Amino acid sequence: MLGVDLDGVCAEHTRGFRRIVAERLEISEESLTLERGWNFEEWGFGPDDFEDHHRYAVTEGRMFRDLEVIDGAAEALWRLSDAGVWIRIITHRLYVNWGHQVAAGDTVEWLDRSNIPYRDLCFLGAKPEVEANLYIDDAPHNVEALRAAGNEVIVFDQYYNRHLEGLRATNWDEAEEIVMERFTQHCGNYGVQTQLPGVSGTLGQRLGNT
Hints:
single chain; 210 residues; alpha/beta
């Protein structure tokens, strides 16, 4: 099983959030750097600003519905799924008590519209509880917690996680190569289900590229 994070791994969270914050504050997007720390301190946020802006972005700006897909994510995940990798989406988008219906609904809609394949979807903060064989994540605290619990994690490269050592992918081609290597080592040619149940057609057809 591959545990896949969404924001910063499959979805361009920083770019989408920046667009909404800039519109709300009536400033240029370029004034909010993409090279930001995990807590957005480079954007000049005060103690409660992130939660306020993020709540607005999710519930009013419908950010989770409209984020751009990180290049290559859908294509790589379809190839992995077709090879038999069980993909479980794990996201912590319900981390505070507001907008759950919007956040969950827009997440599912985004996954469908973006042609991201998955067999399970978990809204979960404590990711080690999922017990996947391999994880891919960008959040430093998630990577550290998963590794502390004995899990193998691919760090999906972002500016705010470059202090982390260990296994890293700078794009989805690299991530796919690592996952396939681990998958082959784990199960070889046995017990492989090569296609999502009820899904047929070529990769291009599934991604709408015909």
